[in-house]
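User: I'm writing a tutorial on reading structure tokens. Could you give me a worked example: one chain, its sequence, then its tokens, then a sentence or two explaining what the tokens reveal?
Assistant: Sure. Here is the example chain.
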Amino acid sequence: MKTAICYYSRHHGNTKKILEAMAQAGDVELIDVTTRQAVRLEHYDCVGFASGVYFGKFHDSVLSFARQYLPAGKPVFFICTYGGGMGSSARELETLAAERRCSVLGSFGCKGYDTFGPFKLVGGIAKGRPNEADLEQACGFYQKLQGAYDREVHL
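And here are its predicted structure tokens:
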């Protein structure tokens, strides 16, 4: 399964750590939405969108990128890191996927070191995360995605 994961990862690089681990588990191209222009996502079997959670949602650059480049009918998945909680952070992406008739294969989220806003005053939260267990779970998630994609394609 040839996969593109379109992502935004700054501050502590939590999301990128997860994605680099996943990229070792398959044919994955990581696309930084802040540096890459004019992407052809229709050339991939599956597309992921990844970001830290900012005020309960994915970063605006990921949402804008998805609105511009997500082709209709493409299987998608979502990945996030968060300090407080995952909540309904992928809601806008799920809505976009539904509008474009894209099947959602799944979502993965894990804690990530967070020093944004008031957390900076206490030295941050979720220190040491993502850790090795998180990276292993991310790889397991990607392997399950591959199975879900294979089942969807062979139906």
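What the tokens reveal: The chain has one domain: 3-153. Helices lie at 14-23, 60-69, 91-99, 132-153.
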